[in-house]
């Protein structure tokens, strides 16, 4: 079971030479969707130069409308892998279909399971048989207990390298895209030894709220952050309004690392 045995029971998840759940605050950043090699090169350069740790980019996008951009698929993963290697950044991307787990494992260092698939039990089981760390996002209508049991599905298949990600839940409030549940951070820390990160981009849906909520997450004891960035957010094929401009991301890196040192 992934339950915490005592107060000092913490697990770190290794990704290359990065440790998630250790001393460092881990920053995962990149565009919502992989759109082109140029877009990924510009984003990865910004992540690397600012001191970010992991490059993100979606190749299979779970869009609300079937007519919205669905992602570049395997071609996108090829770009992600190549750009990650070029900048020596480990990469993360979302899997939506159990049949794609093995294929995606050939391209990424961390496999992401998105909010809409948190209780896709066949996907969770397949992820549990994968040879890669899994980032498990909280379902947008999942309780903490639902979320931990979803993680248990992965662990039960033998894969203990699980990183939890709070990305906001649905509430009556619609000023923000989701309501970021910051309390989930200390709660998760008290219940399980698994590391937890926060995604303030999907958690708010608004660029100007990303930095304040990232800082709130750090104050709450988070192990890392995942943020969306884009070389030109107004031209982004998905989630432009919540994507940071590259210089804004550089500022966020400085501010978050400084705050983390103080805590
Ligand atoms: C994402 O990170 O690309 C994503 C789709 O997030 P979520 O599953 O949290 O909506
Ligand atoms: Mn997105």
TrEMBL record:
It comes from the Bacteria. Transmembrane segments: none annotated. The keyword Transferase applies. Its EC number is 2.5.1.54. GO terms for molecular function: 3-deoxy-7-phosphoheptulonate synthase activity. Keywords: Transferase. Residues 17-262 form the DAHP synthetase I/KDSA domain. The keyword Transferase applies. This is 3-deoxy-7-phosphoheptulonate synthase. It comes from Alkaliphilus hydrothermalis.
């Amino acid at each position: 079971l992934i339950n915490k045995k005592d107060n000092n029971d913490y697990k770190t998840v290794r990704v290359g030479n990065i440790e998630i759940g250790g001393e460092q605050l881990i920053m995962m950043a990149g565009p919502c969707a992989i759109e082109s090699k140029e877009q990924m090169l510009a984003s990865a350069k910004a992540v690397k130069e600012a001191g970010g740790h992991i490059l993100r980019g979606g190749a299979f996008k779970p869009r609300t409308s079937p007519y919205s951009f669905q992602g570049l698929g395997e071609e996108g993963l090829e770009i992600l892998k190549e750009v990650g290697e070029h900048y020596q950044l480990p990469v993360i991307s979302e899997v939506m279909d159990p049949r794609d787990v093995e294929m995606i494992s050939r391209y990424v260092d961390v496999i992401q399971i998105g909010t809409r698939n948190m209780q896709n039990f066949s996907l969770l089981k397949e992820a549990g048989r994968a040879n890669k760390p899994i980032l498990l996002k909280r379902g947008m209508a999942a309780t903490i207990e639902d979320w931990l049991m979803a993680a248990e599905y992965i662990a039960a298949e033998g894969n203990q390298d699980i990183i939890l990600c709070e990305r906001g839940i649905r509430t009556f409030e619609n000023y923000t895209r989701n309501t970021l549940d910051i309390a989930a951070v200390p709660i998760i820390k008290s219940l399980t030894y698994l590391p937890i990160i926060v995604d303030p981009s999907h958690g708010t849906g608004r660029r100007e709220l990303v930095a304040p909520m990232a800082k709130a997450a750090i104050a709450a004891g988070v192990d890392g952050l995942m943020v969306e960035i884009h070389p030109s957010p107004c031209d982004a094929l998905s989630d432009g309004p919540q994507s940071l401009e590259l210089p804004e991301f550089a500022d966020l890196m400085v501010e978050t690392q400084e705050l983390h040192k103080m805590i």
